[in-house]
């Protein structure tokens, strides 16, 4: 009966904890309904602990556009604790030995003191949850406030958007005949309006750093990127973008040099890429592979001089390495690979058979250097170079438009070839280097001479200079010309000049060395005009028989950068050449005599024959060397930045903040390049269209003889119809 008249302690505290939980729930609901901008006064009057906070609330400053209200929610929590403490001090006196606990002692005390009080533990747990809620509310409010040093980036205006659109429309405008400098002027005019507004409006520090005094294109890129970064936008690629590229597995980069010719054909596109491979391989930062064409026996007999031929790629590789080691004086460690090709008699050039990129393993597909990128890609039907490789560099060797204009219907052919060259170089290259301004102005191109001369020629020049200093006369012969005997290689200009000024150059004799398809016609023409020219077979420019000549004459205006001219200067000879963009690099050398008219040609020839060449300085010798050429190549191709792991697509504003253009904003150029590559792939895949554009029949894939020579699987196995 006694137990029924007096409630049990567990029931009592159960009802108390239930009432406390209800009170705390009401407090939490009020906290949730708490707003900064407006709160009814009755809400504060109903809560006693808020009355104690009134002085603090009144001390809040008035909100300004750049200020924020800071609410001390920790004080609210302490007020709740103090209110509960007053009500609970008398209740929480149920410890062992009737020990009384204050509220703070209760929350932080030893749990062993109240392990038997399950209702109290439940109340403590619930109270902690409410405290955590207040802390989270405080944190969320503090995150919402504006930092005092926030930097606002203004949105793009119409002139900036239009300037960016014109700049990205460069591929279309270029195909329509609008020159690049005109587009740059339009972009500069539109963007300058934005820079002028800087005098009238205040910009953020970041925005002001972007609007600097540098290149307009770079400033526009940084401006677009900064706006997109401020919005949190990130561009991860478009429809044509291939993110799955070669992933470096070691610390070395892999460089593949692909060219259109090989020794023993003594032409610039076989010699210069070979030297480039040798000098690039000297660095331990990259491994180098030289990829050259393999011709079947029948084509070798047409192309290679002195009836030289090879039965296997290994045999030709031995010949190439021996030739190279005789001229550079050091052992070059690089790999040589072959791709199947055929010789076009009509075009007088080698055309690839099949997809060249498939002969470069994916593990080595890192950096590609395309020697003559337009030539390599005229009929390229295969993987997009820019998708397979991380960085693709094109080096333009030949002025094809100049050669084509000399043919039948040359103007019409040159028109189409010009646009095709624009097409393929834009689609398949990241960077293009033109050896001189004599070449076609191609997209993404810069002008720089990245070729040098063999150390053998520099040693010959040093020996000749040493003999001259000792009082000897090493130059015992007069003038000579050396080059492939085709009309376009300067023979037409040479015969015309000599025929016009036969009387002015009375007694002048010229020795000419060369082989070529037009040899018989050139010799017969010179004989019919009774010119004093002694024709001889072609030979290596470094042969001893050529050391005694004092004057090298090169009237060609079709060359881009004549290697023979550089070699003659390196050997300390006079050079008489046309005042032409292809000879711009050589003008700084005192022994280079340029002429503008035929009368001037006669004067320069006489000047060279009557005087002695000047001695070259060490600086001038270095400028002709392959060491200097390799340094220029690394700089202008941005290969030094790629090898060192720097991102050329990332730019910094004046404040040093890095902005990645390629990952921050979409690029219309990438979309256009991808579309051009896809269209080119479709066209070159059709045999009828290939033949209409002048391709060699059957060059979309390699033939049976190539399979036997290179030990390849048939193309049907390598590229099944369902695999493309």
From TrEMBL:
Catalysed reactions, semicolon-separated: a 1,2-diacyl-3-O-(beta-D-galactosyl)-sn-glycerol + UDP-alpha-D-galactose = a 1,2-diacyl-3-O-[alpha-D-galactosyl-(1->6)-beta-D-galactosyl]-sn-glycerol + UDP + H(+)
Compartments in which it is found: Plastid, Chloroplast outer membrane
Gene3D superfamilies hit by this protein: Glycogen Phosphorylase B
Protein name: Digalactosyldiacylglycerol synthase 1, chloroplastic
GO biological process: galactolipid biosynthetic process; nodulation
Keyword Metal-binding: no
SUPFAM superfamilies named among the record's database cross-references: UDP-Glycosyltransferase/glycogen phosphorylase
Cellular component annotations (GO), alphabetically ordered: chloroplast outer membrane
Record carries keyword Transport: no
Alphabetized GO MF terms: digalactosyldiacylglycerol synthase activity
Gene name for this UniProt entry: LOC101504489
Keywords tagged on the record: Chloroplast, Glycosyltransferase, Membrane, Nodulation, Plastid, Plastid outer membrane, Transferase, Transit peptide
EC number: 2.4.1.241
EC top class named in words: transferase
Chief subcellular location: plastid
Role of this protein: Involved in the synthesis of diacylglycerol galactolipids that are specifically found in thylakoid and in nodule peribacteroid membranes. Specific for alpha-glycosidic linkages.
Family: Belongs to the glycosyltransferase group 1 family. Glycosyltransferase 4 subfamily.
Domain Glycosyl transferase family: 479-614
């Amino acid at each position: 009966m006694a137990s029924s008249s007096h409630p049990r302690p567990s029931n009592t505290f159960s009802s108390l904890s239930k009432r406390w939980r209800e009170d705390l729930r009401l407090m939490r609901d009020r906290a949730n309904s708490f707003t900064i901008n407006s709160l009814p006064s009755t809400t504060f009057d109903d809560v006693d602990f808020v009355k104690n906070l009134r002085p603090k609330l009144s001390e809040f400053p008035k909100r300004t556009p750049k200020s924020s209200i800071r609410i001390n929610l920790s004080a609210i929590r302490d007020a709740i604790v103090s209110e509960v403490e007053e009500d609970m001090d008398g209740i929480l006196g149920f410890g062992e030995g009737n020990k009384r606990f204050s509220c703070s002692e209760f929350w932080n005390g030893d749990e062993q003191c109240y392990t038997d009080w399950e209702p109290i533990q439940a109340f403590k747990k619930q109270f902690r949850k409410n405290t955590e809620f207040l802390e989270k509310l405080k944190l969320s409010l503090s995150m919402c406030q504006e930092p005092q040093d926030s930097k606002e980036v203004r949105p793009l205006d119409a002139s900036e958007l239009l300037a960016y659109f014109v700049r990205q429309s460069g591929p279309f405008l270029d195909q329509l005949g609008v020159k690049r400098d005109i587009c740059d002027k339009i972009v500069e005019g539109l963007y300058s309006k934005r820079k002028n507004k800087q005098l009238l409006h205040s910009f953020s520090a970041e925005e002001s750093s972007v609007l600097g005094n540098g290149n307009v294109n770079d400033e526009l890129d940084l401006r677009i990127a900064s706006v997109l970064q401020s919005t949190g936008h990130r561009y991860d690629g478009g429809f044509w973008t291939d993110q799955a590229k070669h992933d470096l597995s070691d610390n070395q980069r892999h460089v593949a040099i692909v060219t259109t010719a090989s020794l023993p054909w003594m032409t610039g596109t076989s010699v210069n890429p070979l030297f480039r491979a040798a000098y690039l391989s000297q660095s331990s930062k990259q491994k180098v592979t030289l990829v050259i064409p393999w011709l079947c026996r029948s084509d070798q007999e047409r192309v290679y001089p002195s009836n030289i031929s090879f039965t296997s790629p290994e045999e030709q590789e031995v010949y190439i390495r021996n030739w190279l080691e005789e001229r550079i004086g050091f052992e070059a460690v690089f790999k040589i690979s072959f791709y199947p090709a055929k010789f076009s008699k009509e075009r007088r050039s080698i055309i690839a058979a099949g997809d060249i990129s498939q002969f470069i393993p994916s593990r080595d597909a890192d950096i590609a250097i395309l020697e003559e990128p337009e030539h390599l890609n005229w009929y390229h039907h295969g993987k997009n170079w820019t998708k397979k490789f991380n960085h693709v560099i094109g080096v333009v060797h030949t002025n094809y438009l100049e050669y084509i204009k000399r043919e039948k219907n040359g103007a019409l052919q040159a028109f189409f070839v010009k646009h095709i060259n624009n097409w393929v170089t834009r689609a398949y290259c990241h960077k293009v280097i033109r050896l001189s301004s004599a070449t076609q102005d191609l997209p993404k191109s810069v002008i720089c001479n990245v070729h040098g001369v063999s150390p053998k020629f520099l040693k010959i020049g040093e020996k000749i200079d040493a003999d001259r200093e000792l009082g000897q006369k090493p130059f015992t012969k007069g003038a000579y010309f050396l080059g492939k005997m085709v009309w376009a290689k300067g023979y037409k200009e040479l015969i015309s000049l000599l025929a016009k000024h036969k009387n002015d150059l009375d007694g002048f004799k010229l020795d000419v060395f060369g082989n070529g398809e037009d040899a018989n016609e050139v010799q017969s023409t010179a004989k019919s005009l009774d010119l004093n020219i002694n024709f001889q077979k072609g030979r290596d420019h470094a042969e001893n028989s050529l050391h005694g000549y004092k004057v090298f004459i090169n009237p060609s205006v079709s060359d881009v950068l004549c290697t023979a001219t550089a070699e003659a200067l390196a050997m300390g000879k006079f050079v008489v050449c046309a005042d032409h963009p292809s000879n711009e690099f050589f003008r700084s050398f005192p022994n280079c005599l340029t002429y503008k008219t035929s009368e001037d040609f006669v004067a320069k020839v006489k000047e060279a024959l009557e005087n002695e060449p000047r001695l070259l300085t060490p600086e001038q010798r270095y400028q002709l060397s392959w060491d200097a050429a390799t340094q220029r190549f690394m700089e202008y191709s941005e290969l030094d930045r790629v090898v060192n792991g720097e991102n050329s697509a990332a730019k910094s504003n004046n404040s040093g903040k890095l902005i990645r253009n390629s990952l921050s904003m979409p690029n219309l150029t990438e979309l256009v390049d991808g579309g051009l590559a896809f269209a080119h792939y479709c066209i070159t895949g059709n045999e009828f269209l290939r033949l209409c554009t002048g391709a060699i029949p059957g060059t979309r894939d390699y033939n049976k003889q190539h399979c036997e020579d290179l030990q390849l699987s048939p193309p049907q196995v390598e590229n099944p119809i369902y695999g493309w």
